[in-house]
Amino acid sequence: MVNKADFDRVFAENQRARTDFVMVMVRPNQVGHPRLGMIVAKRLLARAVDRNRVKRCVRESFRQVMAELPACDFVVRLIARPVPGEEARDLSRTFKRAGHRAVAKWAPAPAGETTPDPLPT
Asked: pTM above the 0.85 mark?
């Protein structure tokens, strides 16, 4: 994900799952495949080398489970300074858990059922 609008849509309403170091926010998308966005703040990892290492680990974890994930936008936010070498611990399970929660929350209505309009016109 690269557009601010895509990130804003996920921030507005999402399903969350977390590990010790990261929070994963998820929202279904219309693209048809999972997409990844990351937020790694300088205040948590001041050195660019450390931020880039975390991003590489997150991207690799995402790539490994991408085939099993639903069509959602995943935003990963670093919430604590990770121990070197444990950046991606439990991350693939967290991606799956958050993705399935999001799909369950925003599941389409069964055929024949209509959802009421939130604002009558």
From this structure: no
